Amino acid sequence: MMPRKPTQQKETSQPQLVIPKQEAEKGLRTQIERGCEIRQRDYKTASDLQVGRQDKDKWTKYSEGAWKMGLVQELRHAGIDIDLNKLLP
After folding, report:
1. pTM of this prediction?
2. 3-30: pLDDT as tens digits
3. Which residue in 10, 32, 45, 80 could disulfide with 75, CB within 3.0 to 4.6 Å?
């Protein structure tokens, strides 16, 4: 039996991102810090809690929107045209 030839692995390059990695990381860190700040507040009154819930809801909607927009940009850049509103709630 003859020995197998080693398979050659294709050299794969990293995909080119629409948003540079450092910029994306900075945006993610900023959003995480904002979320942590909302979570760590000292809520003493019902009014404080209501404001905190409103801030959390606003933070959540913004974060989800930013995530969807970034994903759509990257997919379109890769040649994939997709409507996330049909796929995601």
Report:
1. 0.65
2. 666 555 555 566 667 778 888 889 889 9
3. 80
